[in-house]
Amino acid sequence: MSDGIGARVKRKEDKRFITGKGKYTDDIRMENQAYAAFVRSPHAHAKVKGIDASGAEAMEGVIAVHTGPELKADGIGDIITGWAITSRDGNPMKTGVWSPLVTERARYLGDAVAIVVAETEALARRAAEEVEVDYETLPAVVGAPDALADGAPQVHENVPGNLIYDWELGTETATDEGLARAAHVTEIEVTNNRLAPNAMEPRSAIAVFDEAEDHYTLYTTSQNPHVARLVLSAFYNVAPEHKLRVIAPDVGGGFGSKIYIYPEEIACLWASMKTGRSVKWTSTRSEAFMTDAHGRDHFTKLKMGFDESGKITAFKVDTIANLGAYASLFATVTPTYLYGTLWSGQYDIPAIYGTVRAVHTNTVPVDAYRGAGRPEATYMIERIMETAAREMGMDPAELRRINFIKEFPYQTQVLLNYDAGDFPTILDMAQKAADVAGFPARRAEAEARGKLRGIGYSTFIEACGLAPSAAVGSLGAGVGLWESAEVRVNPVGTIEILTGSHSHGQGHETTFAQLAADRFGIPIDNVSIVHGDTDKVQFGMGTYGSRSGPVGMSAIMKALDKVEAKVRKLAAHTLEASEDDIVIESGEVKVAGTDRKMAWHEVGLAAYVAHNLPPDMEPGLKEGAFFDPVNFSFPSGCFICEVEVDPETGVTEIVQFTAADDFGTIINPMIVEGQVHGGVTQGIGQALLEEAVYDETGQLLTGSYMDYAMPRADDVPFYVVEHGCTPSPNNPLGLKGCGEAGAIGAPPAVINAITDATGNNDLQMPAAPARVWAALNTARAPMAAE
Amino acid sequence: MAEISMTVNGKAVKRSVPDNTLLSDFLRENLRLTGTHIGCDTSQCGACVLHVDGKAMKACTLLAAAVDGSTVTTIEGLANGDLHPMQKAFNDNHGLQCGFCTPGMIMSGVDMVVRYKAEGRELTEEAIRHELEGNICRCTGYHNIVKSIQQAAAEM
Questions:
Q1: Does residue A487 share a domain with residue A460?
Q2: Mean pLDDT throughout A433-438?
Q3: For A116-135, what is the mean pLDDT?
Q4: pLDDT digits (tens, 9 = 90+) for A693-717
C-alpha cells in the first residue's frame, strides 16, 4: 500500500501553508474585536505600591484597564504547577504563588501587572505605556547557585532560601562505595545553558465571551487545548468546562513553550467577560523572550568511577536547577523525573545517586523545552564519558561499548525499565555512516589548511511516550497521560480520525491518516484528521514528550481495531460468511477464496442504512478508544559530530553530522527525518549559539534576534540520518517517538568534537568563538612552555 | 492619513490608512492577506518576506506609504493556478513543518533563484545557505529547505 505504514507520503497539510492560507490564531479576526496589551514590570523584583491607570483610561479608544487585585476579587485562581515533588527529607515542595496579574510584587522582568483593552493593537500598546505603576525596587537574584547563597534575596516569602525542593534519586551509600573502590574517578562541572524556545509563531490568544449563552471561546497557540480548558476551568475558575471551548488552530511550532497556560490567556478571557468584547492579544518577539517559559538552566557537578577495565562502578550527580520566579506547569517534574531517571544513559551502571535542588530566581519561569530534562541528563553523561575516556587513554567509542546495556528488559538504578534497544548496532551504524575510519586522514587534511578538526560522540537514550498514568500518578503527577482517539467512518466510506494529539508542525494530518489507509487499503486522501478543538474532540492530553506516536497513534490503532471488528462482523453477515474468512485489503472487504465481496464504501453505507444488520449490532460505524501505555518508550541513538575550529578566531564549523537513531517502527520516514534535522539543529544551537542571558539585576540582555543567536541556514550542514529499529514491545505499532531525539543527543556530540579539536576538556555551552579561543589558548599554554 | 494605491497580487487596491501603517499590517489587517507573517520585531526572522516590484523585501520594516504605486506579490499571489515550482518543491522535499516561516522562505527562495539566473551565477548549496541569512526557521534545521530551493532552481 503506497500510502501505508513506512511510506514517504508527502504531507497533506502542506498546501494551505505553501499558499499562505494557513490559519494561525493571529490570522483570525472576530466581530467586535478589541485588542489587549500588557503593562509589564521593567524590574526583576519590585513591590507594586500603586497603579494609576487614569491617564490610559482617558485616552480615546481605550476600553478598560484591569489589574491583578480585580481578577483575584472575581475569583480567578492562581496559576498551578502540575507535579508535586517530595524533598529527600520527606517534606513536600514549596512553590511561590503565581497570580495571573501581579497583586503585590513583580518577580521577573516582564511579569504582567495590568491588562489594557483598546480599539486597536497600537493604541493598546501606547496606552499600556501610560499606565503609571509605583514600584519599589527590591534586590534580585538571577543565577541558580546564587539563589542558594546565604543572604540571597528571597523571591517568595513562603519559600525559605529560595529552595523549592531538595530531591534525591538512587542509593547514596552504594554509590559512594562504588566511587571509593574505583580505579579511576572523573569529575567535571557542567552548565546547561538557559534557552529561549523561539517557536516562530509568537503566542496569541483571542477570547470571545457570549453573554447570551454565558459561554467562552478561546482561540490560542496551544499544544494541548483540552488541558488548557481543564486547567482554565478547574483551577482558574474562568468558566465550567461545558461553557468553555478552546481551539488551537494552526500553531506555528511549540517545542514545549505552548504547553502551558499563561497569564495572558487567563486575563484575556476574563477581560472579554468584563468588557463584552472579543479580546485579542498577540505577543511581540520581545515579549516572547521575556515571558515564554525558558528551558534548561542547570548547574551540575558530577563524578563517575571506573574499574581497571573501564567498566563504570558508580555515578554521582549534584544539580541545581533554576525554575525562575514561579513554578510553571511541568517545571517541577522536568529536573526530577524527566531528568534523574535518565542518569543511567545507555550504560549498565551498578550504583547511581544524585540530588537536585530546584530554586526560585527573579527570572521568567523555566519549564519543559524540547527534550525537557533528558537533554540535561544526556549532556552531562556524554560529557563525562568522553572526558573519562580521554583521561584513561581509551577510545571514547570503545569506553561506551564496554559499558553498554546489552540485555533487555533492563532495570536501571533510577526507576526506569528499558524495554528494547540495540546500542552496539546503532553505534556501528553511526560509525560506518560517519566514516570514522577515515577521520585521521580528514584531520590531517584540515591541519594542512590550518584548521583543527575534532570528532565527538553522543550515545543517548530518552524516556518518551509520556506516560503510564498510574506510574506518573505515583510520582506526583496531577493528571494521567493517556491519549484518546475516535475513528468515524462516513456512510460513503471516507474517514475522519479525531485525536487528542495536537499537530503544530509534526505532520499528524499525514502520518495519522497513513494508519487508516494502511488498515483498510483506502486512499489517504479519503482520510481526514480532526484535532485542536475541544468541541470536536472529546478529550486529549496533547502533544509533547514525543507522545503523539507511541501514545496518540496507539489510541488510533485501538479505535481502528474496533472499527475493523465491526466491519468484519457486518461483512460476514451481509456476505453470509464466517468472520474468520473476511479479508480487508485494497479498499475491499472480501470472503477469502471466493468472489464474494463488498467495496469499502458499501460497508459504510450498510452500517448507516441499517436495513440488514446482525441482530445485536447498533447502526453506524464510529468507534473511540483511550490508550494508556504500560511503560515509557525508549528511543535511543548515536550521534557523531565533526567540527573544524579556526585556531586564530575560535570559530567552529560543523562539517559533518551523523545521526543514527532507533525510534522503533517508523510510519513516515520523511517526516521522522525532518524531526531529526530540526531537533539536531536546536541542539547545535544550544551547543554553539544560544543562551538567554540576564544581567545581575535581572535585566534580560537577550531580548531580540539581534542578541539571541538563532541557528541560521549557514550555521549547519546537510545531515546524514540513519535508522535502526528495535520495536517497542509496549504499544501496538512498536513506536518510540522521534520529536526530541535531535535536541537531546546533539549538544554533547558538538562539545565533545570541539574539545577533541582543541585538546581542552573544559568548555561550557554555548561554545562561542571567544570561549573556544580561550579554551584553545589555555590548552596550548603548557605546550608552549615545554 | 495616507492615500495608498498599489497593485497587490495582480489587483489594484486603494486604501486610506494612518501614515505609520506598516506594509505587513496593511496586507494583514486592511487587505486580510494573512499569509505574510510577523515572527519578530527587529526585521530578523523573514517570515514577512514578499516581493515589491519583483524584489524580495521585509514587509515588517516598510511603511505601506513607502511602496505607494508599487506592484506587490505576496505568498497568496505566487501561484498562477498551479503551484509555483518553489511551492511544489517545498511540498516535494518536506521543506516545511509548522509552516509559519514558510511564506517568507518561499518568497526569498524565488527571489534568489531569479536573481542568480539573471546574473548568470550558480546557486550553490553554500550560496543558498548564505542567501537565507535573513530567514529563520525553528523546525526544519534548513536541510529540506535548502533541498527544496535546489529543486526549484533546477525547474524554474
A1: no
A2: 98
A3: 98
A4: 999 999 999 999 999 999 999 999 9
Interchain proximity B138–A719, CB inside 8 Å = no
Say whether B79 and A19 touch across the interface (CB within 8 A): yes
Task: Tell me the CATH number at A328.
Answer: 3.30.365.10
B43 and B71 assigned to the same domain? yes
Enumerate the H helices of A235-278 as residue ranges.
Answer: 263-275
Q: Look up the domain containing B146 and give its range.
A: 85-155
Q: Specify the pLDDT at position A785.
A: 40
B 25-64 → A contacts, CB under 8 A: 28, 32-42, 44-45, 47
B118-147 residues touching A, CB cutoff 8 A: 125-126, 128-130, 132-133, 135-146
What does the CA dihedral B23, B25, B26, B27 come to, rounded to 10 degrees? 90
A580 and A689 together in one domain: no
**In whole angstroms, what is the distance from residue A466 CA to residue A463 CA?**
8
The length of chain A is: 786
**Mean pLDDT for back-to-back runs of 10 residues, chain B (156 residues):** 96 97 97 98 97 98 97 96 96 98 98 98 98 98 98 97
Would you say residue A299 has pLDDT above 70?
yes
Residues of A in contact with B76 (CB under 8 A): 19-21
CATH of the domain at B144: 1.10.150.120
CA A513, distance to chain mean position in Å, is 23
Name the DSSP class of A580.
G
Best of B28, B138, B145, B148 to mutate (most A CBs within 10 Å, chain A): B138
Among A201, A507, A682, select the one facing B39 at the smallest CB separation: A201
Using the beta-carbon criterion (under 8 Å), do B42 and A250 form an inter-chain contact?
no
Euclidean distance between CA atoms B104 and A645, whole angstroms: 32
User: Are A651 and A686 part of one and the same domain?
Assistant: yes
Tell me the ipTM for this assembly: 0.98
Q: Shortest CB distance from A719 goes to which of B75, B126, B143?
A: B143
Most B CBs within 10 Å, among A14, A675, A676, A688, to test the B interface: A14
DSSP letters, A72-95, are: HHTTPPPPP-SB--B-TTSPBP--
- Looking at the fold, whether B72 and B17 belong to one and the same domain comes out as yes
Instruction: Look at residue A75 and tell me whether its pLDDT is greater than 50.
Output: yes
Residues in chain A within 8 Å Cβ distance of B58: none
> Residues B9, B58: one domain?
yes
Q: Is the pTM of this model over 0.95?
A: yes
If one counts the domains in chain A, the total is 3
Residue A783 predicted with pLDDT over 80 = no
Over residues A611-630, mean pLDDT: 97
Angle at alpha carbon of residue A180, lines to A177 and A182, rounded to 5°: 110
Same domain, B8 and B72: yes
Q: Do B83 and A19 touch (CB under 8 A)?
A: yes
Domain extent, residue A41, equals 15-138+201-252+258-291
